[in-house]
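Anyone opening a protein record will find just a pair of labelled lines. With that in mind, the following record should read easily:
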Amino acid sequence: MDIRQVEPGFAVAPQLQPGDMAALAHEGFIAVICNRPDGEDDGQPGVATIRAAAESAGLAFHHIPVSGGQFPDAAIDAFRSVRQATDGPILAYCRTGTRSITLETLANPEGRSASVRLGLANAAGYDLTAMASRLGD
């Protein structure tokens, strides 16, 4: 697994497998957010399979799919709600981690400035400077 720590209590990763869920729970995560729609790629595990594995490992599972570079307000609001309501470490994933870190940056659950959010994304290996104008400050 390529887990990229964004800040204490929040990390992102590329595609996870059902077998990864027990290791995530062992590492202290309490919730997983999937930002991929089902059927996006051949061989991608289905959401129901990942959800069952996560719940079997004792993890809360949330599915907030986004695709095509679109980040609708409803998805941003749902991501923010999960982040703010979860009392413990969360890992969000998608195909590469980019959608997950983008949702985190747009949702701004900690109320941080745009420059801080972009810096956290950059430190985790994701360059989101192209969306700086959408973030305000």
